C-alpha cells in the first residue's frame, strides 16, 4: 500500500512539472506565425478614383489601388500616393486640378458610394474601401 501511495505521489509530481515545462520549439513557431498574420492584418488596401465633372470634361481621370496601415488617415494616404494641396484638412487640389471657388468647382468624395462631409484628416479607411473623388460644380 505504501508503494502505491509513493508511486501516485511521484506520478502527480511528474504531471505538475510537465505542465510547467517550457513550450516546445513547434509551439514557438506557431506563435511567430500568429504574430506574422497579425502584422499582415494591419495592412489594408483601398481603391481611389478621380472623376472630373467640369463643363469641359466628364471623365474618370485615374484609378489606383493603395496599400496603407490601419489607423492612417485618408489625408496621409493621399499625400503618400498623389500630388495634392490641402487647407485645414480639406483637399483643395489633386494632381494640379485645383478648386475654383469663383466658378463653384470643388473636390468632394464618397467612400463606398456614401458622401463624406468630414475632412480627409478626420477620415479613416477600412480594408477594400472604394474612394471616389469628384471635381464638380456646386451652385
TrEMBL record:
Signal sequence coordinates: 1-18
Transcobalamin-like C-terminal domain segment(s): 71-137
Region entry Disordered, spans: 28-61
Domain of life (superkingdom): Bacteria
UniProt cross-references to InterPro entries, sorted A to Z: Transcobalamin-like_C
Coiled-coil boundaries: none
Record's keyword annotation contains Repeat: no
Protein name stated in the entry: Transcobalamin-like C-terminal domain-containing protein
Protein's organism: Enterococcus casseliflavus EC20
